[in-house]
Amino acid sequence: MTKRESRPADRAPRTGRVELVCGCMFSGKTEELLRRARAVAPNEIVLVKHARDDRYSTTDVVTHRHDRHRAVIVQQAGEIVEHLTSEADFVGIDEGHFFDAALADVCTRLAERGCTVVVTALDLDSWGRPFATVNELRTRADSVLIRHAPCACCGRPADHTQRTTPIVEGNLVGGPEAFEPRCLSCWSPPPEDPID
Ligand SMILES: [Zn+2]
Questions:
Q1: In angstroms, what is the span from residue 184 Cα to ligand 1's centroid?
Q2: Which residues are catalytic?
Q3: Reported confidence tier of residue 73, pLDDT bands at 50, 70, 90
Q4: Residue 136 lies in a domain
Q5: pTM, rounded to two decimals
Q6: Which of 57, 101, 141, 154 could form an S-S bond across to 20 if both were Cys, CB 3.0 to 4.6 Å?
């Protein structure tokens, strides 16, 4: 289930593109990233993940269905350019909400160099608050694909992520053991105070 937003016509032209794939957890964002990456020659791909995202692997981008692809691991958005090869034409960045505020600038620069940049990201945190990094990317992206998962309670399209276990020591990273997709009617924020 997807909805597309078109890019405003008043942006400066660039030879590459920035494409944002967003939605709640379990909406197939990383599957979409790997599907697009596999349409590109392997030597032209650089996949990137943030070091904080260690749920399934510390070396690969991995979907919730355990499909995977080798990735470079970074701590800061500014490190991404250090990993580009001269052949790199497709840069895939998984879980963009983990990144710092420089991510949108980095993606824009890569697009100006001619790269197709695909970023997956949650658009809302566990409290239903937007991620500033993702909002900024959204304003810069040439295309935004919004994916939905079926709500775990009622089956309608879900755009929120429900925390289903207590948050221990501020750890907000997890998989099906700690989160499920919910529509707004079925979703409620966790009782813990939001952690900034
Ligand atoms: Zn529901």
A1: 7
A2: 95
A3: very high
A4: yes
A5: 0.86
A6: 141
